[in-house]
Amino acid sequence: MSHKQFIYYWQKWLLPTLVRAVVIICLTVGVLGILGSTAPMSNAQLLSTSKGIQDKQTPLKSTALNATVYHSPDCNCCGGWIDHLKAQGFQITDFSTPDIETVKQKYNVPDNLSSCHTAIINGYVIEGHVPADDIKRLLQEKPNVAGLSVPQMPVGTPGMEMGNRKDPFSVFSFDHKNSVAVFNKYPSS
Q: Looking at residue 33, what is its pLDDT?
């Protein structure tokens, strides 16, 4: 095979075949990664009919509402979430710590579900700006999960209010094997 024939063969058949194979492999790995992932895909997908996160109060019978909250001293929104819990009947023990990542590791908070503060309520891990009604539902139903999370810091969640703006978000449950499921969904407004 001459040099010119090799170049022609490379350009017309081998290179396009190689590119197609790489694209197929990348797409396959990507799709399998998405389908096999336990992580939330995106807050933009989340819809719900739940309303009035801060306004309604769900009664909870015979369960102590004690929360131990760990947060960074540099975070300003955690106080708003703590105030939300207090207004819903929770008794708060507040710990400000510069090493919040150690707390998250101690309680096995999955990295993809982390937020700015971590709370422990009746043995459950509560990560981020989880509405009190979802925590009360968790305490009533007592599912076999490690806890609940609102990843990141969506606008409109308790403690992250910005006027009337509310981004869509979900509350996720997670277990000790880091399996994740949607616990509740809230729409934007």
A: 41
